[in-house]
Amino acid sequence: MKKILFSLSILATALLLGSCEKFLELEPQSQGVAVTNTSADSVLYKSASEVEAALAGCYSDFKNEYYQLDYFVNGDAQSDDAYAGGDNPANFQIDDYKLDATNTNVSRDWAYLYSTVGKCNAVINNVGKVSDPALTDTRKAEILGEASFIRAFMYFQLVQLWGDVPLQLQEVTTISADNLDDIYPIIFPARAPKEEIYAQIIADLETALPRVRTTNVHKGYVTKGAVNAMLAKVYATREPHDWDKVNQYCDAVINGGYALLADYNQLWNNANENSAEAIFEINYNGGITDGNWGTKIFRGLDWKKFNLPANDLVAAFDAEGDNIRKNASVIFLDVSGKWSDSHWPQTHYPFINKWRNFQEGSDQNYIFIRLADILLLKAEALNEMGDVDGAATLVNQIRSRVSLPNTAAANQAAMRLAIEKERRLELAFEGHRWYDLKRTGRAIPVMNAAVGVNGQPLGYNLTENRLLWPIPQAELDKNTKLTQNPGY
């Protein structure tokens, strides 16, 4: 407590002495807390350009290390679609369910996500105060909606990874002895129940829905389609699942003017970016200032890459006779004399093939949400509501694009597994598999049955406690109100 009060007193002094500063960061930085000057003219944003720049800062975080790299490690290497690959011990811990609270990926991901939450909070709480006539009421509403979507997106990552997490929605305006009791819970928050986090995610998305633009040629900006898609995903993940809501919001996306590309490979050939199938896609222009360095982490012969495609996934493609999606998703190369790996021979070594521009300064886009994902999510909702035939129609629509026969699933239980398999093969390496397995309650049986070379068990020992990550030790050290997840 003495240490905390001493830190606060220093920060308060800095705030008083540095009155020219408009925005000061306050520990713990990773939890999105900000201190703003509260002098007479202390409006955070004085012009339209300032608030637009702040929103751009929120969007730019979709190009940080979390979304260029860790998003895919967490969603794919943590599943049966990929091994960690590379040589990073922190990634090995994630792959093998042997995380501890000092894992560097865990701490940096927490920091990245809460940093963006903090940026969004500043925009959400202050855009309405901007008096610049150049910022119209319509544009203010759009900015509020876009920032609310981004905050919801970040919290959806946080709650899926950690469960109960601090809920930060406001910034601190002053620090003094008089308001210490009020600001202390904001600066050093306890974990909020995951039900409260999901409620806030939904509230943010409902704020966004009527305010954001209906469409945008540039799919990197928030649209109604992206909001509806996220609402469908959230209602399919939050317990208990609300399949009526999932179906409702999937329909809103499907009726929003999106369409599957005729050729699955067109999604990945870099000639159809921001296509009719894309709902939310992070756009890169390439070069030093706007290059996607993440693709180089997954593909190339200069060093051993991350997210090595798993034997189990390749076997699943082969068992289905799914050559179109297999070849679009995985490429095998000869790495003789470069490195070795226990999972694959050097002469037949796989890489992810969906991110094909892996050169320095790549302009490869990342597609985070697309129509096929939503069609299969609707199939899942229909099946859970008892409409097996309706689910089959949607599954068959996805399968027909890659020249596969109709699904043989004829009852609800069989259709559940058919949809699970279809999502795996359709969305491989797009960061979905781990979260699909978790929300359907299938992570433990599937991962503990995963096999490697020659069908040999991989020996994973996934338990209930390891479905969530540990709270970073650095955060526990800074904030005594935080508690650790069970098993860590």
Key descriptive features of the protein:
two-stranded antiparallel sheet, 488 residues, 48% helix, 7% strand, mainly alpha, 8 strands
Task: Briefly say what this structure is.
The chain is mainly alpha-helical and 488 residues long.
What does this structure look like?
This protein is mainly α. The protein has a domain at 284-364. 48% of the residues lie in helices and 7% in strands. It contains 19 helices and eight strands. It has a two-stranded antiparallel ribbon. A two-stranded antiparallel ribbon has the order 3-5. β1 (23-25) and β2 (34-36) form a beta hairpin. The longest helix has 26 residues, at 137-162. The radius of gyration is 23 Å and the shape is globular. The model is unreliable at 1-29 (pLDDT under 50).
What secondary-structure arrangement, pairings included, does this model have?
Elements (H helix, E strand, L loop, with lengths): L1 H16 L5 E3 L8 E3 L11 H13 L4 H13 L4 E4 L3 H8 L7 H23 L10 H26 L17 H8 L6 H15 L15 H14 L5 H12 L23 E5 L11 H5 L7 E4 L1 H10 L2 H7 E4 L15 E4 L13 E5 H14 L3 H14 L10 H15 L6 H7 L3 H6 L24 H6 L10
Antiparallel strand pairs: 1-2, 3-5, 4-8, 6-7
